[in-house]
Amino acid sequence: MYLKIEADLRWPNPVVSSATARTTTVTGGSGVKMSGPYEYVAPSYWTADPYSRTKGDGCNTGGCGGAYGFNSETSMGPAVPPIESVERMVGKDHLWSADGPLDEYWNFHAGGGAFKTIRVFTEALNARYGKSGSAEDFTYKSQLMTYEGVRAMYEAYSRNKYTSTGVIQWMLNNGWPSMIWHLYDYYLRPGGGYFGAKKALQALDPVYGYDDHAVWLVSSQYVDAKGLKLTARVFNLDGTQKFAKEVGADAAADSTVRLFEIPKIEGLSAAYFLDLRVTDSGGKLVGSNFYWLSAKPETLDWAKSNWYTTPTASYADYTSLASMPKVKLNVSSHSESDGKVAWTRVTLENPSKAVAFFVRLKLDKGKGGEEILPVVWRDNYISLLPGEKREITATYRSSGLGAATPEVEVSGWNVE
């Protein structure tokens, strides 16, 4: 039916009529695949997939969702929403139990078939970040794990262009309240995955390679950028700087370039941070990224790959993040409106000597009021280095505020 319509309309371009990896009598392999995964996979999966490393010809044993070809439907699986959405979905009586979140009320908002629970995701979260003691703790850790997972997928495909030619996240959002797959939830509340995707898709993206431990610069703009400067800094959990390197770089239009490898660094904490920044020839910040990394390697069990996941053989260890020093941020904001659209500019300053990690901004309808939704944050779930100051803008409909005054609510992994 679709092919007939395209013929009737004299559609001028070649058509790939199937999303699967079937070969054609005309061209052979099309480069298109719909091979998953759809369940949780470790961030390193996307660059470590053995098919992409060996340039093999078969995807029959699973583990074929890595960053090569055009993957028309895939994701890193569950996307547990922030606590405010989960409370509405499962009710306060089912927020938590001795077994954590895996009761029938949570599972009702998962999927069908192989996706009836979020068990795989939960087991990984417990192993990587430590077992949660409350729904608030679990949902916050979930934003962390989804952020790094979604970002890793998009950045792997960007870095590997044009061995990779595209990837489509399954899915943007759900038609009902759900624990899986979306970038923003049924209530239009963006979670960690949304901002991980947004970070990965910035026009000039400094990228860390989980496979080669190298820093790459990916340009998705269609003009050359010359005279750039990329700065990489590594910090321990207590905020002490353990490594720094600054290099000049030119980024040709629509390009990737491998700049340098992060060397082996002595005296790293069990979990540590990598801060990447790109400035233009005038010193203006034009791209940034912030990674939390583990001194313990994360490995995958390729032999047990199937159509929806590749299990983790050895998990990264981020449990030491719980020992980070507490910080108190200085926060100020200014709001304005043109009648239809409103903006709130939030200024955050970290006066401490520690990193302020994974800071979440919310905008409420007055103090203690409901969150203003939908809202478009320029950035969120951000981290601030010692002494750093940043301004973040939120845009929303003036009608969504009503007669209330916008109130900024700030939380974070180690923020008082």
Average residue pLDDT:
94
> How is the largest sheet built, in terms of strand order?
9-8-11-12
Oligomer: single chain
What is the beta-strand fraction? 25-35%
Radius of gyration: 22 Å
- Could you list the spans in which at least 5 consecutive residues all have pLDDT below 50? 53-58
**Largest β-sheet summary:** 4 strands, antiparallel
Structural class: alpha+beta
Helix content: 10-25%
The SSE order reads: HEEEHHEHHHHEHEEEEEEEEEEEEEEEE
- What is the fold-level CATH name, i.e. the topology of the largest domain? Immunoglobulin-like
| CATH class type of the largest domain | Mainly Beta
Shape descriptor reads: globular
Please, how many helices? 8
Superfamily at the CATH H level of the largest domain? Immunoglobulins
What would you note in describing this structure?
With 416 residues, the chain is α+β, with helices and mostly antiparallel strands. It folds into two domains: 15-78 and 144-323, Immunoglobulins (Immunoglobulin-like, Sandwich), CATH 2.60.40; 330-411, Immunoglobulins (Immunoglobulin-like, Sandwich). 18% of the residues lie in helices and 31% in strands. It contains eight helices and 21 strands. The chain has helices at residues 2-8, 45-48, 50-54, 83-90, 104-108, 119-129, 135-159, 192-200, and strands at residues 23-24, 28-29, 32-33, 69-74, 164-169, 204-208, 214-219, 225-235, 241-251, 255-261, 271-279, 285-294, 299-300, 312-314, 330-337, 341-349, 356-365, 376-377, 382-384, 389-397, 406-411. It has a four-stranded antiparallel beta sheet with strand order 9-8-11-12, with no helix packed on it. A four-stranded antiparallel beta sheet has the order 15-16-20-18, with no helix packed on it. The protein is globular. The protein starts with a helix and ends in a 5-residue tail after the last strand. Mean pLDDT is 94; it is low at 53-58.
